[in-house]
Here is the input.
Amino acid sequence: MLLGAQRLALVIVTALALTMAPVSAVQETSSDLPIVELDVLEGFLWSSTELALAPGQVILITNRDVARHTFTIDIWGVDLSLSTLKPVVFTIPETAEVGTSVEYYSSIPGDREGGLVGTISIVSPEVVLTGILISTGLRLPEPAPRVRIEARDDFTFQPAIVSVAAGTLVEVVNTGVISHHFVVDAWNVNQTIAPGGMVLVRVPADVEPGTVIDFYCSVPGHEQQGMVGVLRIAQSSRPIADVVQTRDGRVEPRIDMRSFLPGESALGSGWTRLRSGSSESVLGHGDYSADVFPYSGLGAVYVGPDGARVSLVVLPIRTDSVPNNQVSSAVQTVQSSLATGWSVDRIASAAWRSVSPPEGCTVAERVSGVVPTVTLPGGVTSCQLTGVGVVIVVSVEGEYDGLSGVNASDHLVEKIVTGEFDGGE
Ligand SMILES: [Cu+2]
Here is the structure.
């Protein structure tokens, strides 16, 4: 996408930046400075409106909007045209004075008024190299597929489930007004994203297809309020577009499944959340109908008094293009997985179907059973929220709120669906 000479220069500078000396051995040459990436996003948005850059530092500006914009700095006589997806390189003049700031904007009529305006603070190279004010990531020399995740002030990542492959660039944008963190323990990633800022994380080359990697925000309280998500590592042979993008090229519907996952101690006195993560991590690895569940869901396991246990999964469900019996069968497969080890009482199961479903369930499916060796009664309820596009499947072994069997799982599903756990913790 870059012109030959520009691209060559970019690769060289990036290579230097990647071999940058440790912070303790900071040198003041501009070639050590990381390339900062600035994007124009649709809706008159810069990916960052507050940049701190040193003289000689390179900005790579990419217009990711369909309309043309410009990168304009009046005081330096700069007016660069930005065509869609044609990156442009700009170098901060060596004469720029540390401590001053300049305004950048797009000079297309209406753009500045729409919000395409920002500020560059000129700082010393030491400030940049010690990372105090860096809010954007390194540009990698090879073009890579890229996915975008928003970190939001409602304590969600959107989308929370993203399929990626080795080498994919994960772009996390903070669209809120408070700082968030993007943490991937498995890859030792822990980055702070300032409001309006963005971080780029590259999926390691050695990731194993089929695995699921958890990420979260480590700002105190945010993870507990649901600021978590998963990166699903796609098979290299499988195009990413199959699972993360719809036919018109947009990211899959942004279903906020976090709101259906009660917090650490939300289930009540004596209950704790043992773990949470992808639906696979709760269900165990299995082949669940990709037609019915187009991509991964979320899940959690809770333990309570007297050996009681709750397993819960929330799965995206597709009912528009799939026959009802196929949906029903796929949901029952999930139910059976949650009830692994139970001797399912199919006769009783038929009886449960005649009972009115919990408030708010569009369709209720249930199974009931008893763990033969442990003597804890158990029940599973699934609740399909067609309007939302998810199915919630809950199993309760032992007692919950003084109830057992499907009475307990129905009760818990009802609390989840009616939002009784919202704002818990
Ligand atoms: Cu956060």
Observations:
- The two ends are 48 Å apart (CA to CA).
- The mean pLDDT is 74.
- The longest helix spans residues 4-18.
